[in-house]
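Regression test case RT-17, inverse folding.

Input:
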């Protein structure tokens, strides 16, 4: 008997992630097509590149590859955000990081809900980029009030979801049956509603203020707006998309193609124009359309230390300062070249990334190291043990998001006419207040994971302590 009557939050998260993917494939068949393409490309990569397959084996990532995905939703009120926090908590997901997108002309700020411990991430790395609309950025007061009223009238969670969240809090977990019901009920919140809560003219007003405002305010729920599988070769998938009738955005967001991938590279297919019904004051329904939902792919690389991240931000900024334009199909090649040129300044070798403390790593004892346990000097250092091949290292996967890339993904779905200018300051505190909790600092999580792997090495190899970089 294992003792606990409860299902592990990891299993609830894995189940929810699978259910959400199945639902989104039904709702947006092009996402299913994208999934097929990614799976096929990953299979090809693994059969062509034995070294890559070996790395993924060592870190345990191989097991999570096909189920790996993130999604995104946007909500309108503090209350909605708080309940989401409780809902994600049932699945072992906590808010990590703060992303202010208003600086990029998108009137939202965001966090990512995800598992935080490497052993939990291995079971299910599912993450949800969650944005809160900043109604205070609507400069037209009557429209702002109208948006507030519409949001106050809706309830985006089923009654049973609220009950199951409360039950989870009171009992400390959910039984298998309750967990299954929870997944089914929670899914409702993320599903698509083709009947809007507004009339055609109200929709138009909200839309003219910002398309995102209409997306958040004019519907019954915060439909999942995309899901993103993880690919081992994003360039290959990007160039194969058109053959499958999928139209990708002009450039891949994030760092350029490298031998040692860092952070996150992302690309998406453009949001689809979908039929919706607006409800007039007299109850009549009028056909219209709404554009919000899309598909995305990502390739994840090494998590960077604050020092590495500062270098990344600096090189990306320098590229954009030089480019002075929005990348489009016609100038994509120039942009990619400029990006690659600038990133010459970022070491492309794991050993150097480690020595210069630019990235986080996980350390593993080798067979040879374990065999030499009895004869070893207990004061051996990490560097000595690496030189002896008693310890090897693998980069830690970046589990988070990038604000500039996220803004690029948002923008590609908004059209060029919607590049608003907001000069409001970043409001992390206001966001945390709305959320009802502090967001976790992702750098601390990477550092802890690295530290745990060093402690495990020290114990397995019989040495006192092993220090890594402590950035
Ligand atoms: C979220 C866009 C950000 C990403 O992968 O950076 C995002 C949204 O469109 O709501 O998902
Ligand atoms: Ni995304």
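Golden output:
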């Amino acid at each position: 008997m294992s003792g606990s009557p409860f299902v592990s939050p990891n299993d609830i998260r894995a189940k929810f992630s699978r259910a959400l993917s199945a639902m989104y494939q039904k709702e947006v068949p092009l996402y299913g097509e994208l999934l097929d393409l990614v799976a096929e490309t990953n299979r090809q990569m693994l059969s062509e590149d034995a070294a890559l397959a070996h790395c993924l084996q060592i870190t345990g990532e191989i097991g999570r590859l096909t189920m790996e995905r993130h999604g995104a939703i946007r909500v309108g009120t503090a209350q909605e955000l708080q309940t989401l926090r409780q809902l994600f908590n049932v699945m072992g997901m906590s808010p990590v990081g703060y992303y202010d997108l208003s600086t990029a002309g998108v009137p939202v700020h965001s966090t990512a809900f995800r598992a935080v411990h490497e052993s939990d991430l291995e079971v299910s790395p599912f993450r949800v980029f969650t944005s809160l609309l900043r109604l205070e950025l609507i400069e037209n007061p009557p429209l702002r009030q109208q948006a507030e009223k519409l949001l106050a009238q809706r309830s985006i969670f089923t009654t049973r979801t609220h009950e199951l969240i409360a039950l989870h809090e009171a009992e400390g977990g959910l039984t298998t049956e309750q967990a299954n019901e929870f997944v089914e009920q929670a899914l409702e919140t993320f599903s698509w509603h083709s009947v809007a809560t507004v009339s055609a003219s109200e929709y138009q007003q909200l839309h003219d203020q910002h398309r995102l405002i209409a997306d958040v305010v004019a519907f019954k729920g915060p439909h999942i707006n995309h899901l993103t599988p993880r690919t081992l070769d994003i360039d290959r998938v990007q160039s194969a998309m058109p053959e499958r009738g999928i139209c990708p955005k002009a450039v891949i967001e994030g760092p350029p193609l490298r031998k040692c991938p860092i952070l996150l590279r992302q690309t998406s297919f453009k949001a689809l124009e979908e039929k919706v019904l607006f409800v007039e004051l007299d109850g009549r329904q009028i056909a219209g359309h709404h554009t919000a939902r899309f598909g995305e792919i990502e390739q994840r690389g090494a998590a960077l230390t604050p020092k590495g991240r500062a270098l990344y931000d600096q090189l990306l900024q320098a590229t954009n300062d030089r480019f002075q334009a929005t990348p489009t199909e016609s100038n994509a090649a120039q942009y990619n070249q400029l990006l690659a040129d600038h990133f010459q300044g970022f070491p492309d070798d794991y050993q150097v990334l480690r020595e210069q403390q630019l990235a986080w790593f996980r350390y593993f004892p080798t067979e040879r190291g374990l065999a030499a346990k009895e004869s070893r000097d207990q004061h051996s250092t990490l560097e000595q043990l690496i030189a002896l091949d008693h310890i090897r290292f693998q980069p830690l996967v970046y589990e988070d998001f990038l604000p500039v890339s996220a803004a690029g993904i948002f923008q590609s779905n908004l059209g060029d006419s919607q590049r608003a200018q907001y000069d409001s300051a970043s409001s992390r505190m206001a966001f945390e207040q709305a959320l009802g909790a502090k967001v976790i600092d992702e750098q601390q999580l990477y550092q802890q994971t690295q530290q745990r792997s060093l402690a495990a090495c020290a114990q397995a190899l019989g040495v006192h302590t092993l220090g890594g970089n402590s950035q």
